[in-house]
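Kindly review this protein for my students:
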Amino acid sequence: MEEKIQGLPGGGGKQGSGGTKVRGLRGAVDVPENTAAAILTATEGLLREILARNRLAVEDIISAIFTVTPDLNAAFPAEAARRLGWQEVALMCATEIPVPGSLPGVVRVLIHAYSDREPVHVYLGRAAQLRPDLG
């Protein structure tokens, strides 16, 4: 028996095994330089790829948490999401922990979305080395 969940983006969903659930989708992308244009372009490309690979619509997205490495401070990556029409999505940006030897120039994202599919995590460019198990 399917039970509609009221108030969900995208008109609701199903609960239970195989039904629509809240999923966590991870992704990261390298940014070639610390400029607003580079950060926004890279982040927009990452978000488009995550939505495409996971067959999601903007209406399916609940929230997104972005982190940037300390060397990226020219723009908020959440601005790229707003430019893609994520007006009703809760967005937050933070600085990644500056662990010595960690990969610089990276935007990471954790997206919470409603989906009936297993998550496909997306790591682009140099950021793919952060998750070699996904390659």
